[in-house]
Amino acid sequence: MPDIFESGMTKSTANFTALTPVTFIERTALAHPHRTAVIHGNIRRNWGETWQRCRQIASALHRLGIRKGDTVAVLLPNIPEMLELHFAVPMLGAVLNAQNIRLDAQTMAFMLDHGAARVFITDTEFHDRTRAAVDQCDNRPIIIDVVDSQAPTQGERIGHMTYDELLASGDGDFTWQHPDDEWQAVALNYTSGTTGNPKGVVYHHRGAHLNALSNVIALGLHSGAVYLWTLPMFHCNGWCYPWAVTAVAGTHVCLRQLQPAAIFDAIARHRITHFCGAPVVLNMLINAPEKHKRSFEQEVTVATGGAAPPAATIEAMHTLGMNLIHLYGLTETYGPSTICEFQDDWNSLPASKQAARIARQGLYTLSMSDMMVAHPDTLEPVPRDGETMGELMLRGNAVMKGYLKNPAETDKAFAGGWYHSGDLGVWHPDGYVEIKDRAKDIIISGGENISTLEVESVLYYHPAVLEAAVVAAPDEKWGEIVCAFITRKPGYESVDANDITEHCRAHLAGFKIPRRIEFSDELPKTSTGKLQKHVLRSRLGTA
Fold first, then answer.
1. Rounded to two decimals, what is the model's pTM?
2. Nearest CA to 456 among 419, 398, 413, 504?
């Protein structure tokens, strides 16, 4: 029997358009051309101007020979040019490869070659590493220099032309083309590559579009929201917020360098309503000198992710007058893929118990279709008892296309029709997931599994602890023991290992107490604020 809902109905340009985040800026410029789009130092541009600049850059790149499927690599901090390229490059069907500004030249060169970059747009502050990276490339890309007035050092111009010269060569009335297929690649992001070369994660237009809209809802972005760029735009394309903030005709406030005083000043001066950052950024604000802290009339919503925020951090953020939303995600999931949505009955809980609930990773976001905690090999879901450990798995529209030129790793990541996160956690009766550790970070001491996140959360409640990272240390008797690396707050230099041990004894089972405690002036981190536990393990000879 024929399907009456298919007969005589066909897909056409009238009723189907491939999803792409580029449509957001086109609509915003039409609806709010005079609303402020970008603030950077003394620069103020509205959406009409920004829309024209994006088309102009797209036109100029087209004249350089950039076409569908070509890669445009960028090495830029949070500046207006970085925002513009998130729209200009996809307008051509080209792929944006935003690189970490702290990378070494050798890793940059690998990415440029692996991604087959045709153009490399870089800030002159990084000219030394840019030159060294390009000199190592098998195929040398065209270099475009960005000269930013807010840069601490201007650096040398080593490119074929400057960004402004490139802009001047383009047509502001350039007509951009929708992607032929929303599955078409829009961005290329690389994993951290702590062991071997990093993997190239490919995003598509559909995922970028849907995850941006999911962010709008999750973070409560509203028309006229003012967003502060504390999260690097190069990290998972800024968790898709270049597109999300633009979708609501918000204002992007660029912040080139991350300093507590600058963040507090920007929040007060520009009436910031939203920003994102890893727990280490929140910790920076919490422990900033009192002279830098400011009070705000507006409501400020902060999204954190990248690592589970300790409950003590969540409590402290509330005392600063900031509403915290906990997100979880990976490079392979366009950034945010789960959210800990606040439940009404949590309002009656004490602050410490509220914070413990918020510290969970929660439920899948609107851009995802499902999640589960399961055995990594059998895919058998674990009981929702909040105790049984399994691997968090996800599926949905905001999961990567795959790893570039690496089908074996792609197949492994998607085994059984799920994306395997590599994170171990438990499933609570209310359906919320709680990550306990990365599979590689879990400590097995005397046959007992120990969550490093649990131990770290307890450490952060000690008044002397500024930063804490827990890893496994080898031990002849137990196999592994808990080792804590700690940075003390100023004024607490006299706190020693015995003090920390006594604190832990009051809150942890005996086998979870750190047997080894190392104090350090600073803990190693990535440019996005994640603690580099592999570096700490290497100090113990266990990397």
1. 0.86
2. 504
